[in-house]
Amino acid sequence: MSATNIIEFNTVKSALYKVIKDERLNGITLKSELISGSRFENTVFENVRFIDCDFQSTEIINCKFINCSFERCNFEFSRLQNCNMVACKVEGCNFCITNSLNTNFLSCMLTANNYEESEHKNATFINTIKEDGSMDEYANSALTLSYEQMAA
């Protein structure tokens, strides 16, 4: 799938349910796009930059994010399941009431995000930088962990 197809369905400012499955996106920037209410499955995102995008109520399942950045994006009421985030930067994003299951964070930087009432279940954090700039003491372990614990 090309970036053009994603941008086309997002420029319609209504929360249409879209399924993006078995795709590969590389080297694009999506800015101020409405992605809410969609489902991403078995998709690889590499060197993709998301700026001010709205992922509210989106399901992200079996996806890989490699060297991606998320700046001021909204993931409220979303769900991440069986995803891998590698060398990603997540800054100023809203994860309020968002849950993830079996999601791995490897060498990511998570800063200035809102994690109110959200949790990770069976999440793995390896070489991931927390909100305060320290390394995650839960590295190399898979356990249930709230976003508040992660950010502490």
Q: How many helical elements?
A: 2
Mean pLDDT: 81
- CATH architecture title: 3 Solenoid
Radius of gyration computed on alpha carbons: 14 Å
Number of strands: 17
Order of helices and strands: HEEEEEEEEEEEEEEEEEH
Main sheet specs: 12 strands, mixed
**By CATH's scheme, which homologous superfamily applies?**
E3 ubiquitin-protein ligase SopA
Number of separate structural domains = 1
- Separation of the first and last Cα atoms: 39 Å
Proportion of residues in helical segments? under 10%
Strand content bin = 35-45%
Structural category is: mainly beta
Instruction: Give the C-level CATH assignment.
Output: Mainly Beta
Stated plainly, the CATH topology is called: Pectate Lyase C-like
Low-confidence spans: 1-15, 136-152
Overall geometry comes to: globular
Summarize this, please?
The chain is mainly β and 152 residues long. It has helices at residues 3-11, 147-151, and strands at 19-21, 24-26, 29-31, 39-41, 44-46, 49-51, 59-61, 64-66, 69-71, 79-81, 84-86, 89-91, 99-101, 104-106, 109-111, 119-126, 142-146.
